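Q: Sequence in, structure out?
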Amino acid sequence: MTGSNVPELAMIWAQARGGIIGSNGSMPWHVPEDLAHFKALTDGSPVLMGRKTWDSLPPRFRPLEGRRNIVITRDHEWRADGAEVVHSAQGAVDLATVGDPRTVWITGGATLYSQLLGSADRLEVTEIDADIPGDTVAPTLSPEWTVVAADPVDGWHLSRKGLDYRFLTYRRTDTR
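A: Exactly. Output:
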């Protein structure tokens, strides 16, 4: 999706072993360093999310400060203070590109990731090195996605909450 004046479409999520990204409508871990990473990457950019992801945010963090919040829902009556509401993934992408942002971020959930993975240019994935039960999984990545950066390069960071984690950046290896 990148090109002259076309914003990069990037996805961001954290996952435990087995690709677990959620449990009962929330993230089943707390890694403050990942939240800081998320904020640093998405700050100043549009963030697209499904209604369940919006609902999973603690009310004091809605809308996500410093970002244009766009929420996708099929419910035409649903409204959210501080967010723009649209009714399709493509409608959200179209709205987010108004104003020529450098990057448009897809922040979840699983349905939105699946709908837009084929259009994404970059993935920012925080891996949590733990077996954590959950009911929501990240999309399965095809071989066209390659890790182009890892932090740390080898091994894991240790969160102050006691979980090992690392940041991975993926890019497509072939063109669409």
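The first helix runs from residue 32 to 42.
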